[in-house]
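Batch job 17 of 40 flagged for manual review because the log was empty.
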Amino acid sequence: MAEQINALLVYWEDEIFQDLTRALKSLNVRVVRAQNCGEVSVHLKKQGATDMVFAAANLRDGGWADVLALAQQSKSYLPVIVVSRTVDVQLYLEALGRGAFDFITRPFLTSDLARILRSAIYKELVSLKQNLAAPPVA
C-alpha cells in the first residue's frame, strides 16, 4: 500500500480552498489546514508531517512569500504551490522566480493535481538522493 501524501493548505477564508480540499481528498491526499504563518511555522517543525504546501496568495499575517520562506528553512525539500483566485501572470512569474514549485487557479482538475503531486514527489526524491550522495560536511 502506498504511503499517503500529507498536504498543508494555508489560507484564511477562501471558498476556492474548499474546492481544492475536495479535489485533493479525491486523490487520497491527507489535508491539514493552517490559517496563518505562525501556524505554518509550528506545523513545519513536526518532522515528516508535511510533504507539500498549498498557500493562498494573501493571508492575514503575510502571504505566499512568507510561507515559501518558512518552507525553504525546512531541513528537507518542501514544494510550495501558490493558489490564486485569478490568473495573474505577474504573480505567477514572481512566485516561480522566488522558488515556488507551481502556481494554480480554479478549476482544480484531478488530472492536473495528480501531475503536480507526482512531479513534486519526484523532485523531492531527486533532492533526497543528491543530499545522500553529497560528501559529509566537516
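Reviewer: the log was empty due to a logging misconfiguration, but the result itself is present. The radius of gyration is 15 Å. Unflagging and moving on to job 18.
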